[in-house]
Amino acid sequence: MTIEPEVDQVSTSETDSGALSGVVSEIRGWARDVFFAIGTAILIVVFLYQPVKVEGTSMLPELVDQERIFVNKYVYRIERIARKDIVVFWYPLDPTKSYIKRVVGMPGDVVEVRKGQVLVNEKPFDEPYVVFEFRDGRSYPPVYVEPGHYYVLGDHRNQSNDSRMWGLVPEKYIYGKAVFRYWPMNKMGTLD
Fold this sequence. Notes:
Layout: H1 12-47, E1 49-53, E2 68-72, H2 75-78, E3 86-90, E4 98-105, E5 110-114, E6 117-120, E7 123-124, E8 140-144, E9 149-153, H3 163-166, E10 169-170, E11 174-183, E12 189-190
Antiparallel strand pairs: 1-2, 2-11, 3-4, 3-11, 4-9, 5-6, 5-8, 6-7, 9-10, 11-12
């Protein structure tokens, strides 16, 4: 009598189905992660940060035409708009257009421009971001900044269409603060 050793036999179809099951499980894991990442990115863009392309030269030298920035759309729900913030807002004379400028006058201030020098409440306003060749030597009469409004100016004063021409920006039109430049890559970083 011969005793043959027992041999575990596995059919190739069982091996193939186990491998296929592992691949399907791996694909499901990757798909779940990708959909989660996309969903998170959409929520961030919709509720927190919005990518914006700068168009024009009114904010030179800080922002250059065609640069890409992120605007924080949530920040003004938890903190107040501050003087010197770079804000994005709906243009008061045509709310279908958005502008980007710097806040100079806060509610209750009186803003005046005398031969290019900005005065806030009759005191010279320090603006190290405005380079000499971009200054505008003209004068503009004093403007009282009403409650719930802001006086905004472009940094490139002799090329900017701003509160000197069309007046104050209602707070409800300001929808975000420029916080981060992401393009071009060599200038990537936070905005002052």
